[in-house]
Amino acid sequence: MQAWRVYENGEPGAVMRREEVEPPTPGEGQVLLRVRAANVNFPDALLCRGHYQVRPPLPFTPGVEVCAETEDGRRVITTAALPHGGFAEYTLADAAGLLPAPDALDDAEAAALHIGYQTGWFGLHRRAALKEGETILVHAAAGGVGSAAVQLGKAAGATVIGVVGGPEKAAVARSLGCDLVIDRRSEDVVAAVKAATGGRGADVIYDPVGGEAYQQSAKCVAFEGRIVIVGFASGTVPAPALNHALVKNYSILGLHWGLYAVKDPASIARCHETLTGYAAKGLIKPLIGERVPFARAADAVQRVADGTTTGRLVVLPEGAHA
């Protein structure tokens, strides 16, 4: 089969190699899946660099999220079992982690549903306890992670403010349903949020960026607001001033979604049922920026690493038309 493999850590575009290899052999509790579509996630870039919290043995195939087909023909979504990731014709996954792909979504959309929307749902509801009528601020609102949070916020009845970089991404954020879009390149984010909320600030802030975005968040979070830390796509891990959190009465909440698979796996299945229902009603639909041919997988991971993409890039095996 064809697979992209990494033999040494570095930038994805430099270290991902396309090869002909034997299909992987399932271990105990695992299943072999035929990949129908593989979503590109920022952790794929971190895996290539050797900076992710999980470091699979070299060589490995990246691609942590797939829509795939079981041997008996069922269409499923799941996270791939590294080192045999999804940028290949076949991948491995834990049998217990397979979830039915929603009928309302095509293969590329289904491949982009699992991690981003589960993270958004757990972040907004389980961690931040978002209430109808509250205001949420989403950083990188036109990106893969942010766009999911925008749609989930609207589905929950919240007012959604999206922060983006540039007019093209601003147009995308508006199309996703943001009630207000702030272009961080030409506007003062903190001033714009305070103006939009009558000086109150945002009740919930969803931050997959870190760095300067976190500093802005701390300045415009409301009384008893909640800042949900999802990741550090900026490359800078902020050091929060806890005295500031104390005097302003706000919470800083960490979210490592993958931990739920270990601590509370039943909650992932329940969330998937909710997301499937949302998809059937048209409340959520993954924003696919580009369906990428298999031959350009390394370039796609590099572009996500560089932060130049809008929505999700999904890699399709040769011959796929999802």
Structure description:
This protein is α/β, with parallel strands linked by helices. The protein is built from 12 helices and 15 strands. The strands form 3 sheets. Strands 3, 4, 5, 6, 7, 14 and 15 form a 7-stranded mixed β-sheet that branches. Strands 10-9-8-11-12-13 form a 6-stranded parallel β-sheet, sandwiched between helices. Strands 1-2 form a two-stranded antiparallel sheet. Strand 12, helix 9 and strand 13 form a beta-alpha-beta unit. The longest helix is centred in the C-terminal third of the chain and has 17 residues.
Short summary of the structure?
The protein is of the alpha/beta class and 322 residues long. It has helices at 12-15, 42-49, 107-111, 114-127, 144-155, 167-176, 189-196, 212-220, 242-248, 260-263, 265-281, 297-306, and strands at 2-6, 16-20, 30-39, 65-69, 75-79, 90-94, 99-100, 135-139, 159-164, 180-183, 202-207, 221-229, 251-254, 288-293, 312-316.
Q: What's the SSE blueprint?
A:
Elements: E1 2-6, H1 12-15, E2 16-20, E3 30-39, H2 42-49, E4 65-69, E5 75-79, E6 90-94, E7 99-100, H3 107-111, H4 114-127, E8 135-139, H5 144-155, E9 159-164, H6 167-176, E10 180-183, H7 189-196, E11 202-207, H8 212-220, E12 221-229, H9 242-248, E13 251-254, H10 260-263, H11 265-281, E14 288-293, H12 297-306, E15 312-316
Parallel strand pairs: 8-9, 8-11, 9-10, 11-12, 12-13, 14-15
Antiparallel strand pairs: 1-2, 3-4, 3-6, 3-15, 4-5, 5-7
Helix pairs in contact: 2-12, 4-5, 4-11, 7-8
